[in-house]
Design goal:
84 residues, mainly beta, four-stranded antiparallel beta sheet, 4 strands
């Protein structure tokens, strides 16, 4: 959590420079964006792919204000990014 917390207040440009391009960028439902990083692993025995997600939420000014992690079998282009 400390690594993820260290990005709060930094810019999405700094994040991209450090982590590379995200798998997906989409709206946060307001004026900002969500940068979705996805790391996949394939389970050959059960024949499915799991994704380890790191999501960063940035305001319109590019400053990161929130993050979350999750694991899901849902691919990056379909994963739910909205905060509830």
């Amino acid at each position: 959590a400390a690594l993820m917390d260290s990005w709060i207040g930094n810019t999405k440009q700094s994040l991209i420079k450090s982590w590379g391009p995200p798998a997906r960028t989409t709206s946060d439902g307001a004026d900002g964006e969500v940068l979705v990083y996805a790391y996949s692993s394939y389970n050959a025995y059960n024949r499915y792919t799991m994704y380890d997600y790191k999501m960063f939420y940035a305001h319109a000014d590019g400053k990161i204000y929130h993050w979350r992690t999750s694991m899901s079998a849902t691919p990056p282009q379909q994963v739910d990014v909205y905060l509830r």
